[in-house]
């Protein structure tokens, strides 16, 4: 199925490569997004938090009917630019975050983020929401919570020629998230630590 952005550009599915060469999370054969989704189910079922992946509305323009009982979407467009991947509520706080992964070992490329996502983060921060990114270094099997306000600071420095966020900065200013069995990615541990840091 061909999917396009509102400006007509073709959409490359985020985990398209992962389908061919499955990225594992802590050697469990699960890709990053699936691990987050499973973690959210755990948090929901244990009445800890309500966080969901945002659905992306599509405008379907071409459908094939190979047989009466089945329809195959051949072409579709995003009705509007996407924002971030997830949002929800935890302990009375609004959470809004994006999940990104890279095979790089020394830095996280800024090209993994889109301008409309950055704009959305700025607006969430302006409303005092807890906004962050979960960064997965697949080659290192390391996951980090990184606050959006810090990301935006470095994003704005791209004008000086910076093309990526060094791992050393992520280690220093972010919060590493250890892998577990349940939930797979216990990112709320990092959220708690971040909330504590903000209150100090």
Please give the number of β-strands: 11
N→C terminal distance: 50 Å
- The share of residues in extended strands comes to 25-35%
Largest sheet: 6 strands, mixed
CATH topology: Trna Endonuclease, Chain: A, domain 1
Query: What is the second-level CATH architecture?
Result: 3-Layer(aba) Sandwich
Over all CA atoms, what is the radius of gyration?
18 Å
Which class of secondary structure composition applies to the elements? alpha+beta
Strand order of the largest sheet: 2-5-6-8-9-11
**Silhouette:** globular
> How many helical stretches?
6
Q: What number of structural domains do the residues give?
A: 1
Mean pLDDT level: 84
CATH class: Alpha Beta
Poorly predicted ranges: 16-29
Assign a percent range to the helix content: 25-40%
Structure, described:
The strands form 3 sheets. This protein has a 6-stranded mixed sheet with strand order 2-5-6-8-9-11. It is α+β, with helices and mostly antiparallel strands. It starts with a strand and ends with a helix. The model is unreliable at 16-29 (pLDDT under 50). The protein has 6 helices and 11 strands. The longest helix is centred in the N-terminal third of the chain and has 14 residues, at 32-45. A hairpin with a 2-residue loop joins strand 3 (58-67) and strand 4. It has helices at residues 16-20, 32-45, 115-126, 148-156, 167-173, 187-199; strands at 2-4, 50-53, 58-67, 70-78, 86-90, 93-102, 107-109, 130-137, 142-147, 164-166, 175-177. It has a single domain, classed as Trna Endonuclease, Chain: A, domain 1, CATH 3.40.1350.10. The chain is 30% helix and 32% strand.
């Amino acid at each position: 199925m061909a999917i396009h952005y509102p400006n007509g550009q073709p959409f490359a599915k985020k985990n398209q490569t992962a389908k061919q060469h499955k990225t594992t999370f802590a050697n469990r054969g699960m890709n990053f997004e699936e691990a987050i989704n499973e973690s959210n189910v755990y948090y929901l079922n244990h009445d800890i938090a309500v966080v969901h992946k945002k659905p992306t509305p599509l405008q379907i323009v071409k459908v094939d009917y190979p047989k009466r009982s089945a329809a195959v979407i051949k072409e579709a467009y995003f009705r509007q630019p996407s924002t971030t991947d997830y949002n929800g509520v935890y302990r009375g706080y609004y959470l809004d975050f994006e999940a990104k992964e890279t095979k790089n070992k020394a830095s996280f490329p800024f090209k993994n983020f889109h301008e409309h996502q950055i704009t959305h983060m700025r607006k969430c921060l302006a409303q005092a929401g807890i906004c962050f990114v979960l960064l997965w270094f697949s080659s290192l099997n390391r996951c980090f919570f990184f606050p959006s306000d810090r990301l935006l600071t470095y994003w704005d420095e791209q004008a000086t020629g910076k093309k990526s966020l060094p791992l050393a900065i992520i280690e220093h200013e972010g919060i590493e998230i250890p892998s577990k069995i349940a939930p797979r990615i216990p990112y709320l541990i990092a959220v708690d630590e971040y909330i504590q840091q903000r209150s100090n």
